[in-house]
Design a protein that fits this description.
This protein is mainly α. It is rod-shaped and about 120 Å long.
């Protein structure tokens, strides 16, 4: 009977040791996964910061281009409203005349140009 108890105790210690070894392996695997996830978080965070910076730059460029477009459209509005002195054969007034306008001399004085808004696109910006 004593031999049986010793054998049972030995088997129990072996099972406990095996279970402990499995838990230690699991801890090592989880630490490895945790380290990999931490690296992934750092990579994604850096990518986010890069995109945020790029977005800030693009927003500033868009605002500047919008301001330029508004200014150019305002200039075109003035040119269209009073013809800006272009095409006038007389030195006075600077207003609209009944004289035909020579578009080859001053293309901005032609109504088909003056009536067109200037549209901007980010496609023309090169880095």
């Amino acid at each position: 009977m004593m031999l049986s108890n010793r054998e049972s105790a030995r088997r129990s210690r072996m099972r406990k040791q095996k279970h402990l070894d499995e838990l230690m392996d699991q801890v090592a695997q989880l630490r490895k996964e945790n380290h990999q996830l931490g690296n992934n978080v750092n990579i994604v965070s850096q990518h986010y910061l890069n995109l945020k910076t790029e977005n800030t730059i693009l927003t500033a460029q868009m605002n500047e281009l919008t301001h330029r477009l508004e200014s150019l459209n305002e200039i075109l509005g003035f040119l269209n409203a009073g013809n800006g002195g272009f095409g006038s054969s007389e030195g006075g007034g600077g207003g609209v005349t009944d004289q035909p306008i020579d578009c080859s001399f001053n293309p901005m004085s032609c109504s088909y140009v003056v009536n067109q808004p200037i549209l901007a696109s980010a496609d023309f910006i090169q880095y």
